Input
Amino acid sequence: MTDRLPLYFILVTVVLDAMGIGLIMPVMPDLIREVQHVALSDAAVWGGVMAATFAVMQFVFSPILGGLSDRFGRRPVLLISMGALALDYVIMALAGSIWWLLAGRVLGGITSATHSTANAYMADITRPDDRAARFGLLSAAFGVGFVLGPMLGGLLAGFDTRAPFWVAAGLAAANFTLGLVVLPESLPVGKRRGFDWRRANPLGGLMQIGQLPGLGWMLLMLFFYSVSGYVYPAVWAYYTQAAFGWDSSLVGLSLTLYGLSMVVVQAGLVGPVMAWLGEVRVILWALVLDLAVLAAFALAGQGWMVWVLTPIAALGSIATPAIAGYMSRRAGDDQQGELQGVMASVNALSIIVAPLAMTQVFFWFTREGAAVQFPGAPFVLALVLMVVALGMFRAGLRTGDESAG
Output
């Protein structure tokens, strides 16, 4: 049991990191309106800025924290980050202005960049033959956190808009205390290396695109696909409130349904469907399904339609592993690491761009005085981007051009 306590700590840390992403989504519209005294459309713009800020901090600090953990060990990086995460939730709970909320998102993005350190710790304490299974546990822990976060945030917001943050602060503080007691250092001093800013360059992945000949078009297609898909976390809470008058509890429950549906799809359907249809057909049919679902969300007139569409939307996520597998087979054995780094950078860039673009569209179509009141407008933008992604993939198949697949 003593040997397993560090493992449990790492898994709980990843759960809390994921919860931090989903926790604030149901309550953020009400919290921003509370501190800013603005309409929902204006709150969405600020929500987009904070989501993009969070993503930028993760993008910048993930390689930095990874490098620091190689230099000073995993334990101090993990413990300091967990303590800072508890402080972040306290700041959010006490925030009386938009600037304090923004400061909380900066600190939250930095502390949530510890996923790479958690992976490194897991690799340190696991035999090579068992690492794949342990990394699977980390993925499962992230999924659990993303399911629990919106559910907890939505339920607690029914009591008070600050309640989710106080509970999250308590959980993070408790995990920090547990880590002080049970978490040993996993990286011996003899295996540590000096910190190198060149290795901590967050743009390193994007700078390697030129070293992956034949994959440029697929990476661009992945960018359009990813930005389109991030319409859901970017505007979901604002869209459902504006279109159907949902409160934080319903928003949280709907996000929980989406998270559970994603777990079912990724854990139970990816393998069988891929074996049945193959990567190319899975990508094509999943993108077509995404187009239909995005159009349906844009035009949905009643709330019950959203509950029906949500599991179907999660089914479209099967395209993500299919795209990754398709690209991996077109990269050489000596390019796999570079490819994964580039794909991670493209995904991070998508998470930065999507909330800014989607919330701006939401603002212009829901603000007072808008020529057309249309809360579903961001889904139309997402649909257009998905059409571009599908068109690029089909064009590559027709021409046989390896740069597009």
Observations:
- The chain has a mean pLDDT of 85.
